Amino acid sequence: MVAIRTLALSHRRTVDRGCAGFTLIELMIVMSLIVILASITISVNDNGQTRAREAVLIEDLFRMRDAIDQYRADKEAYPPSLADLVSEKYLRAVPVDPFTNSAETWLTIMSELDPSNPSAIPGVFDVKSGSDRTALDGTQYATW
Q1: Which of 23, 99, 103, 120 is 20 to 30 A from 128, alpha carbon to alpha carbon?
Q2: pLDDT band with cut points at 50, 70 and 90 for residue 3
Q3: CA distances from 24 to 27, 28, 30, 117, 141 (A)
Q4: Widest CA span of the chain, in angstroms?
Q5: What is the average pLDDT score of the chain?
Q6: Are 86 and 71 in contact (CB under 8 A)?
């Protein structure tokens, strides 16, 4: 009976020592999974921020182009500059380009001279982003 009890105690000690911690392989697998999940999260987050900036750019361009069209309908001429849209209350402020972080970098496209009215001053016909970056769809923001 004593021999069986001693054998059982020695067996229990062996089992207890084997369950004391993690093996190096288990730790490496867990660390690899954490690195993979973190890299996926970072790439998804970067694309999400870019998509949000693109949405802001689209909205800003729409609002400014709409204000240019309203100015043209009211005054029968294009505005001389984007600042005139603000001073005439068509816009509260010239929006900040989300990719250049400046309200001064907008590219303005001037209207063509009217052959029937050579004394007319050309004004802002269209506006585009001043960024030289490429969008997620492969086009340049300056072409939007």
Answers
A1: 120
A2: low
A3: 5, 6, 10, 83, 49
A4: 120
A5: 88
A6: no
Torsion from C-alpha of 122, 127, 129, 135, nearest 10 degrees: -130
| φ and ψ of 92, to 5 deg | -70, -40
Chain position carrying tokens 């999400």: 48
- Strand 124-128 relative to strand 107-110: parallel, antiparallel, unpaired? antiparallel
Give the predicted TM-score (pTM) of the model: 0.71
- Residue 140 CB neighbours (<10 A): 13
Helix, strand or coil for residue 124?
strand
Domain boundaries, the chain: 26-143
Q: Which of 93, 85, 89 is nearest to 68 (CA)?
A: 85
Residue 14: CA count within 13 A, CB half-sphere: 6
Residue-wise pLDDT for 77-94, tens only, equals 999 999 999 999 999 999
